[in-house]
């Protein structure tokens, strides 16, 4: 099923448009507004189309508690043993930073929006006139939040890490219930970092058929191989965490792309999209010159009328103006009807 394109800010998104690359800052500003603004500049320099934040405060996403329910497992690769409050206190983007970050992004030609985590975040983002909303994977079950974001009439991008088909369907329906059809569903593995073998990218075209939306990919693997493959399978949006440097680069830096990697993602995903072409088989217009130089049967020695056709005087060579090479078995042993100079394409009227 071919889905209608949508528009975010100044960019059209869909199968007929180059991939829309969203650079996710998350907590990689490392508590510094100056660093956050440097990340925005880096993203603009990369050629990506959008910068995205996460809009929450520790108290809007959890409570301060040391109880086991509020603590990550000790074996977690990045944040083992930390409380949710402690993690979100470190990673959150102060609300007063949003306006200067968004202002700089727009000045540099980027779309700038965010993932809201509660209604007060949506209020803030509405006051800043964001062009879209992103629903994080863990919030896909918060259908009231999805309805509220979708009710603003702007495109809504929904990550699906951990979600079942039923949960994804319910989230998409929640957006549609309030009249919003500008929906992008992102395939996603909510593991940080994710092993490429966990990506299951063959599900991307299945998701498009199942949910009737545009499909993208939110990537938590290391490198750019997975998102490039996702684009080849039909993803029209790619979201990737970014950092200025993985070494000491912030709470999500370990699975985030550095500047050179983000530039490579932008350029190579565009090439992957260009390579998709059309669902057809056959010669392209650009191959017209090549068709001239296929092999065919040519007279390769001067011959007289009455001489037989042999492997010495007729051969399969380039270019392609003579009989097909497979016709040699039919013409071998027959005689030439006229004197024929070397370099003449063999045709039926010569024998």
TrEMBL record:
Q: Which UniProt keywords apply?
A: Transferase
The cross-references to SMART domains, in alphabetical order and at most eight, read: SAF
Q: Which gene encodes it?
A: pseI
Which domain of life does the protein's organism represent?
Bacteria
Q: Which SUPFAM superfamilies match?
A: AFP III-like domain, Aldolase
Q: What sections of the sequence does the record tag as coiled-coil?
A: none
Q: Please report the name of this protein according to its UniProt entry.
A: Pseudaminic acid synthase
Q: Known EC number(s)?
A: 2.5.1.97
InterPro entries of this UniProt entry? AFP_Neu5c_C_sf (IPR036732), Aldolase_TIM (IPR013785), PseI-like (IPR051690), PseI/NeuA/B-like_N (IPR013132), Pseudaminic_synth_PseI (IPR020030), SAF (IPR013974), SAF_AFP_Neu5Ac (IPR006190), SAF_PseI/NeuA/NeuB (IPR057736)
BP term (GO), one: carbohydrate biosynthetic process
Write down the PROSITE patterns for this protein, in alphabetical order: AFP_LIKE (PS50844)
Spell out the molecular function terms from Gene Ontology. Answer: N-acylneuraminate-9-phosphate synthase activity
Membrane-crossing residue ranges in chain numbering? none
- Tell me the ranges covered by the AFP-like domain, including all copies: 296-351
